[in-house]
Amino acid sequence: MNISSYDIIIVGAGLAGLCLALSIQHLPLKILLLDAKPEPRFTSHQNPEDIRAIALSIGSQQLLSQWGIWSTLENQACPIRQVHISDQGHFGISRIEAEDDHVPALGYVIPITQLIQTFQSEIPKQKKINLEIRRPQEVVALTSCSRVTTLTLKREDEMTMVQAPLILSADGQNSTLARLLKIKKTEKDYRQWAVVANIG
What is the H or E stretch that residue 160 is in? Predict the structure, then answer.
């Protein structure tokens, strides 16, 4: 079986993996981005299965601007102009205003589906990045030898192998790479809850 070689392999093409790919676009490297799920399809910029929104800090917005994709997202973003911080039953309160820092916003709230869709459409347009995207591709085995790690991938009944000196895990809480490497995780219950709602 032939093995395809890369400089970096990113496993997981969600927000973390897509951001990773964009953040290293300036490097003269051959990059492979893998994901076990097929590419999501969107209708009118929305995915009915995922109606979550995400709050981006002003620093994240500036990064997206540097990457050349904020102009595509700007019309879908709601600015955060005030932040109120308090702890019920405890002394003290803090209010942060965008005006006080002389910035248009402290951050922005944007639908996650819009962010992912923009990443997916804009990454292929980046001329600087030598990126290949394969999906759906499930990682089923991992072996390390010398300074190279080899991944065995499965798509339906077809098996392929890829390798790179650096593998980056961005495949979420139930990470396949973490399981294959037997990396243990620790969970702690803080007994705190949050209520999140979309108000139309």
Answer: strand 158-164
Task: Please give the span between the terminal C-alpha atoms of the chain, in angstroms, as a whole number.
Answer: 53
What is the number of other CB atoms lying within 10 angstroms of the CB of residue 7?
Answer: 15
- DSSP single-letter state for residue 43: B
CA 4 to chain centre: 24
* 124 CB-side CA count, 13 A: 6
Sheet hosting strand 53-57, strand order edge to edge: 53-57, 107-111, 78-80
Distance of CA 106 to the CA centre of its chain: 21
HSE-CB for 31 with a 13 A CA cutoff: 24
Residue 125 has pLDDT above 80, yes or no: no
Query: Which tokens go with 21?
Result: 């790919």
Query: What Å distances lie between residue 101 and 58, 89, 95, 189, CA to CA?
Result: 12, 29, 12, 35
Locus of tokens 């243990």: 184
103 φ/ψ angles, rounded to the nearest 5 degrees: -125, 150
Give residue-wise pLDDT tens across range 9-58.
999 998 899 889 888 877 889 999 999 998 877 655 455 556 788 999 99
Dist CA 119 CA 61 (whole Å)? 14
For the whole model, what pTM was predicted? 0.82
**Mean pLDDT calculated for residue range 149-167:** 95
